[in-house]
Design goal:
Elements lengths: L2 H28 L8 E5 L2 E5 L1 H22 L1
Antiparallel strand pairs: 1-2
Length: 74
């Protein structure tokens, strides 16, 4: 792999990371972390957060988006 191709791959990865970060930031502002169905366990000095509802919602949205994109490019 030459340096130009490696540079393009690194730029695409950085853009994908920035998009995911923006979506997480936006989702936090919408309150996706406090949805009913998310589990939070707390004890003395520890916390465990299990985002079941947010994971299911994210899976459904990404599945629909991926299907739309794949049908569009086919």
């Amino acid at each position: 792999m030459d340096l130009q191709a490696l540079g393009k791959v690194m730029i695409l990865m950085a853009l994908a990371l920035a998009i995911v970060g923006g979506l997480l930031w936006f989702g936090g502002r919408l309150g996706l972390g406090s949805m009913p169905g998310n589990l939070r366990f707390q004890g003395d000095g520890w916390t465990c957060f299990v985002p079941i509802a947010a994971s299911i919602l994210l899976s459904i949205v990404l599945t629909v988006l991926l299907n739309v994109v794949l049908r569009w490019f086919r």
